């Protein structure tokens, strides 16, 4: 997966760099809830008052649930998720997406049928949802619609929310106009482009009225 530099682009990461950056991305997603669990345990170790103990236990429960949901989502979105040629149930993908993304601020409207799709298409969909979530930092709704049907189905994710916006450089990373920077944030849209290419698709990110649309076609 190495590449050459051209004006306005950076050299694509090699396989080791890609693996390392994706691992960094997963660690970035997990460090907050895991850190909160540690903080809660430290409060319990101090023999707290009953009300502080209740608060610490609630923090641990909530953070453990968040960490578990993020791990399950990352396993599907970034991991192997079965052997080569494996298929994944869109119902399972919906469950993982809701557990990871729906947090009281952001909700998902899922208009996809329940069927098995090749794993790379499902991984592509989950990564599209991550990108779409970044366009509504204050929360809102992600609406997932199918394009086509059957095993060749692709997807359209519509983000609506207060001050929906295009994140800096993400559209260029998806289109290949800009190479990925050496950080965990830029590697995710770059990886999304690789997944789309593996499926014979192209991912675009563009405004449409007050909404932001992520499309794989």
TrEMBL record:
Keywords: Transferase
Single GO MF annotation: transferase activity
Keyword Protein transport: no
InterPro entries: ChpT_C, HATPase_C_sf
One Pfam family here: HPTransfase
Keyword Nucleotide-binding: no
Domain of life, per lineage: Bacteria
Residues covered by the Histidine phosphotransferase ChpT C-terminal domain: 91-210
Protein name per its UniProtKB record: Histidine phosphotransferase
Organism: Bradyrhizobium centrolobii
């Amino acid at each position: 997966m190495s590449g050459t530099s051209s004006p306005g682009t950076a050299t694509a990461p090699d396989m080791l760099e890609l693996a390392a950056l994706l691992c960094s991305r997963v660690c970035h997603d997990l460090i907050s809830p895991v850190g909160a669990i540690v903080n809660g345990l430290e409060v319990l170790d101090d023999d707290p008052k009953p009300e502080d103990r209740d608060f610490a236990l609630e923090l641990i429960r909530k953070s453990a649930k968040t960490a578990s949901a993020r791990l399950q989502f990352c396993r599907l979105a970034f991991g192997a998720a079965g052997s080569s040629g494996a298929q994944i149930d869109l119902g399972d993908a919906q469950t993982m997406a809701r557990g990871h993304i729906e947090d009281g601020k952001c909700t998902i409207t899922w208009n996809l049928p329940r069927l098995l799709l090749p794993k790379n298409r499902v991984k592509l969909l989950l990564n599209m949802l991550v990108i779409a979530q970044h366009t509504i930092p204050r929360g809102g709704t992600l609406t997932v619609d199918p394009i086509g049907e059957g095993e060749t189905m692709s997807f359209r994710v519509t983000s609506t929310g207060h001050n929906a916006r295009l994140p800096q450089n993400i559209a260029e990373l998806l289109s290949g106009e800009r190479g990925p920077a050496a950080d965990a944030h830029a590697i995710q849209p770059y990886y999304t482009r690789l997944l789309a290419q593996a499926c014979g698709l192209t991912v675009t990110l563009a405004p449409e009225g007050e909404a932001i649309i992520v499309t794989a076609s």
